[in-house]
Fold this sequence. Notes:
The structure is a single chain. The protein is mainly alpha-helical. It has a domain at 15-54. It has 2 helices and no strands. The protein has helices at residues 15-33, 37-47. The longest helix has 19 residues, at 15-33. The radius of gyration is 15 Å and the shape is extended.
Amino acid sequence: MSTEPWLPSLQTATPQAGYELAIKLSRMAVKLTQPSDEVRRSLRPVYEKDAAALMRPR
């Protein structure tokens, strides 16, 4: 994990910018949880059709 800050603030100028920041934060959290692009790509077809698959033990 990088120690360099990439997020200077959670404050945004508009509600739309806040929404876009929320999306960015969720994507960053996914990358932090599963850093492998290959693994994320292989799992997506499963959970995009069945969200419960994200909670099932493997």
